[in-house]
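User: Second chain of the day. Same drill as before.
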Amino acid sequence: SGSNMAGKTTFIKMVAINVIFGRTLGFCLARDARIPRASVMACIRTEQSVESGKSRYFAEIETILTFLRHDGGDGPLVVVIDEPFSGTNTTERVAAAKAVLAALSRHSLVLATTHDVELQEMLRDRFDMFHFTENPQVEGYFDYRLQHGPCYERNALKLLAEVGYPHAVIAEAIALAGASGRSGTTDLG
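Assistant: Same format as last time:
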């Protein structure tokens, strides 16, 4: 988990690539590694298609269903999913992600990213939590260091302000997020 642009997707991609390199080429991009004897399946960026009539969400649910249907007959899997079900509403996204990730973790090594604090809490007993966050002391704002534990920081509204969204829009968003209990930050400078 972690802040927007802090390195979550890049991290899980690199883990997947290193497992693939280790299993197929006999090396990986690390000082030391224990590469599982497992195939890699990933759902990182699905695309919508006007031609097929599939939305990004529908393409994602089809892909993740193939992970669930894997029976382990070909060996274990490393499953990598970036922000599962992000193309739908919050309530159903969190519920579906919790159920699917819990089911997958019964027979696969699962790496998943999320911004949903609620999902982190639901999976706490089944998954080890790690996060990335911003560090204002570092040039570029992110130190890209993996930290143990869940992330409760939110930076989406800060980023809107940083790129120049109108102050009135930011103020309204902060008020709405605060009213719903979802804002991790209210000080945007």
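The CA atoms of residues 2 and 151 lie 5 Å apart.

User: Great, on to the next one.
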